[in-house]
Amino acid sequence: MHIPDGFLDVQTSVIFTGLSAAGVAVALKGARSQLDEKTAPLAGLTAVFIFAVQMLNFPVAAGTSGHLIGGALAAILVGPWAATLALTIVLLMQAFLFADGGLTALGASTFNMSIVGVWIGYGAFLLVRKILPKKKASIPVAAAIGGFISVPMAAISFTLQYAMGATATYSTTTVLGAMVGTHILIGIGEGLITGLTVSAVIASRSDLVYGWKNNNQKLEIRNA
Amino acid sequence: MLNNRRFYIGGFVVSLFLAGVVSFYASSSPDGLEKVAEDIGFIETAKENTNADVALSDYGTKGVDNERASVGIAGVIGVIGTAVVAGVAFKLIARKPRTVKN
């Protein structure tokens, strides 16, 4: 869902660059208080893994592919603040090193994936986790659902940007329908990859998984 | 439970393998947004990326004709580059200033 240059007008690109910058600043503050020497390496590895898996487009329908966004996955592994930063680093690498996604659209793409994808995905994960039994086995299931929901939500976020300032004049309703329909399919892949990855990390190092730890430990002592 | 070393080396090697080897088998069909833009027609408003002539543009390595090697090298460079940038960034972010009591 990397937006190329030209889709959005200058005003919309500027607005979303500002919103994303603000979001990243908040995430930086949150990550600073949450990450420590033990969890910081996992945040780095999460960015690396998401970069790699984003290269793996899978077919979803005739002539259409999709790939992991990884917002929900990152949020569950390292917390939503560090996840926003990890996704933003991935998008920066892709735009500058690989010309994947336009540079003027980078703010809008960051908003859809690093902010909407991460926080909506994490919110959905928390809701599902609340309903499911408080067991380790519930975490990958909640993660999969969070991942699934995050993709059409990011697609809706793009449609909002399209409505605000597309350079084209096709109807927003048409774009909304097509974006949501396609991205529900891609979301199924996102959910599967998210669930499988979270279950693999839980099996090997559950002590590192943010979405499990902060469920498990009611009290956390932090030295500010 | 894996120890730290094994866990991080394992995760990094898996990432290298996915980006360096498996990426060759990825679907080359347009992604969701691109396909929607093509079907509806607003793909015509896309401009060429200002960055389009970088050496690794579109996950291919300039000057490497073998397709498997071209995408594989790009993937490996991307994984290492992301590891360096994210590794340094998160290390700095996580560093706690020494608390001074007054």
UniProtKB/TrEMBL annotation, chain A:
Annotated compartments: Cell membrane
Magnesium in keyword set: no
Keyword ATP-binding listed: no
GO biological process, one term: transition metal ion transport
Domain of life: Bacteria
TM region(s), chain numbering: 7-28, 40-60, 72-99, 105-128, 140-164, 184-203
Gene3D superfamilies: 1.10.1760.20
Keyword entries, A-Z: Cell membrane, Membrane, Transmembrane, Transmembrane helix, Transport
GO cellular component: plasma membrane
Topology in the lipid bilayer: Multi-pass membrane protein
Name of the protein in its database record: Cobalamin biosynthesis protein CbiM
TrEMBL record, chain B:
Entry annotated with the keyword Methyltransferase: no
PDGLE domain location: 5-95
Domain of life, source organism: Bacteria
Any single Gene Ontology cellular-component annotation: plasma membrane
Presence of keyword Metal-binding: no
Transmembrane portions of the chain: 7-26, 71-94
Keyword field: Cell membrane, Membrane, Transmembrane, Transmembrane helix
InterPro entries per record: PDGLE_dom (IPR025937)
Compartments (UniProt record): Cell membrane
Protein's name according to its UniProt entry: PDGLE domain-containing protein
Naturally occurring in which organism (per UniProt): Actinobacteria bacterium BACL15 MAG-120619-bin91
